[in-house]
Amino acid sequence: MLSRRILGLLAVAAGVFSAAPASAQFFIKPANLAGAPVRGYEPGMIGSALPDATAEELRAALVWNLRAALNVAALQCQFEPTLLTLGNYEAILRDHRIELKKSYDTLEKYFIRATKDKKAGQTELDKFGTRIYSGFSTVGGQLSFCQTAGSIGHEALFLKPGSLGELASNRIRELRNSLAPWGEQAFPRGYNRPVGNVRLPVYFREDCWSPKGKWLIKKCGPLPTDG
To answer: The pTM is what?
Structure first.
């Protein structure tokens, strides 16, 4: 009787875990990259500062940063299919389309007000968007960024409409932290700290790579090789 009960419990447990989606794990113990919530005025959290922006406009900027990060992840993280970054991003665009459009419209109005010209405002909005996308492009920190973006994208799927702003406020700092190269925390050999605290080979320097992933020879010389 006891054996049957044990087998039954094991079968139930197997069913539960097999029903759950697979989750990529690049490290035995990943770095804890979580940070305090932000409101948008903190340096570096929304890309470039928005002088005299209202709380609503800063929230819109956070939402747009989150969208950009998940878009970049959808393109750059498909090497690990279990992260579901592409499918989740497409679902987020559908499920949260109203809040995303409202955020875009709010930012558009901000830049028109700031430049006092509709055409110039649109140009500045386009530049703002380009800087955001470039800011989430990473080389050395790809694993930590993809893992973090995958987790955030998964969480976004279960949010009620209109809640992306809260998610962005709570986790955008974590996304920014994930852009630095992080390694194994359980067995700290090699690099396991952000690039600012450890000397890395020159090819980990993100300023030597273009937003499209090309090595900048004029700036950093020939791409170094192991041989």
So the answer is: 0.71
